[in-house]
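Researcher: Please predict.
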Amino acid sequence: MDGWLKNIKRLLVSFIIVGFAQSVMAAELHEMYNGVRGLGMGGASIAVVNDETALVLNPAALGKLRDYFVTVVDPELSMSGINERIYSTDILAPLTPQTTMATLAANEGVHTHASGKIFPSLVLPNFGIGFLGSFRADAEVLTGGTEFLYEYRNDYAFVMGFNFRLFDGKVKFGFNGKIINRVDVNESAIDTTTTGNTISSLSSEGMGIGADVGLLMTGPWKMLPTLSIVARDVGNTRFDLRDGLFNTTTLKPANEPQKVDVAMAIFPIVGKKTRTSVTLEVRDVTTLSAELDKNRRYHFGFEFNFYDALFLRGGYNQRYWTAGFELAVNNYQLQLATYGEEIGTATTPREDRRYMAKFAYRL
């Protein structure tokens, strides 16, 4: 037993100390993947994920699966609550920067967000493959009307993951490999008098290979206390493997720095066929001490599961409340969530309230 504990301690230390320090003091913190379930639970996911999204959230959680999932279609959309007033029914308007700039010129200081994902996949106990397609666009004409902020990211990624169960499943160790094509725009001061702004003219693009490593440790007690650690983009993910698939630009996206996330969870049983999940997660602990606004790193969530058919969720995301709902019937799944995203600074917090929906059909 002492030898086992020593090995676990070594694993914990190696996960936590690895990484390069990078402090983000302002604006939104972006993740490659955040699902509707996790965002309904305050953005906390790595200790509670138990479906195909384990491939990208925490590959160690592939060891929690008891059956296979074939996800055929699963469109997921998210947008700021203000979008309907700004863009009416044109939900794809934020993907056209020139039109977006003209629209927001009459709404200075209003931040809009739109994002979407698909993730068809096949996952089995301890193994999975999937194809992730995602986009997000954030835009704002800054107060004063002379500068336009536009951020856009489009990822296409093939992901394969494996997990190893140790000590009768009490310890799960998983990893994935990712081949990613990324198109990236990160412009904070476009002159609002310019014309001809397009994603292709503003973007950088490149292809890269990355990997995530995850660890889950579950105590053999009634509420199954669980510790989870995930190292993302181990060794940094670079996008200079080759030119991108879509644009002719020679500019490459910035490296995705390595991060280490840590979470804890418990799973109380409330009654017959009624279970709960409660989790606390801290993002990128390797740079937490340098973060001026530590609230943006903290995530707390809970979920009530009734008969594996109805799910109610809530939580705390960065300093804002979240809520979620899911109805699962046969092979169909409908999920809804709302959450607040921090887009301000350490001295001037600012919430962007967002709404999210996902429909999935699985075999």
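Model: The longest strand covers residues 171-191.
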